[in-house]
Amino acid sequence: MPAPIEFWFDFSSPYSYLASEKIEELAARYGRKVEFKPTLLGVIFRTTGGVPLTELVPPKASYFAKDFARSARYAGVPFKHPTTFPIATVATARAFLWLQSQDEALANRFLHAAFRAYFSQDRNIGEPEVISALATEIGADPVALARGVQEPAIKDRLKALVDESIARGVFGAPTIFVDGEMFWGHDRLPQVERWLASGPF
């Protein structure tokens, strides 16, 4: 069976949200599975010297603020710029990883629910009460999830993933690896598809 597509993301990344709405359908067309891997852009930026797109020099920051909404319209994905942006997503990433350790399908439902909550409903998914509500909405046990995010193994798993992403050259999100080839940004999905269809180019 072909290797899975690795999808590195941060829950505070609008372009990760846009790509997350398309990547599974794209992968399925070519008999691939998507392996969702959270990382933390805050840690990556501290390591690489990067900054959030909306904190770049004013012309670039203004451009990206508009581009988020325009790109969402182009992709046909609901979008509302969050009131609080960016946010810390450590707890959200840990919640995803704990669910992933229990039930991959449930974890993927949480991933989509969390992205949509933040980027189309303006709910701060970094807050424990919002994470708990999302758990209930997808049919997970919010009490068990609240305990799970505190497990040392889950904390260690997220740290290991962040370290791995940095070691592999991830500098932003989403970053997609196909057969070891790295693609950065939701706008690289057409290139990802060409690679899947016909191999290296």
Keywords:
single chain, 201 residues, alpha+beta, Glutaredoxin, four-stranded mixed beta sheet, 10 helices, 57% helix, globular
- Enter the CATH topology name: Glutaredoxin
Shape: globular
CATH classification class: Alpha Beta
Number of strands: 4
Strand content: 5-15%
Q: Determine the number of helices (DSSP H or I, runs of at least 4 residues).
A: 10
Strand order across the largest sheet: 2-1-3-4
Order of helices and strands: EHHEHHHHHHHEEH
What is the fourth-level CATH superfamily? Glutaredoxin
For the biggest sheet, the summary is:
4 strands, mixed
Average pLDDT value?
95
Radius of gyration equals 16 Å
Fraction of helical residues: 55-70%
The unreliable regions are none
- Determine the structural class based on helices, strands and strand pairing: alpha+beta
CATH architecture: 3-Layer(aba) Sandwich
Compute the number of structural domains: 1
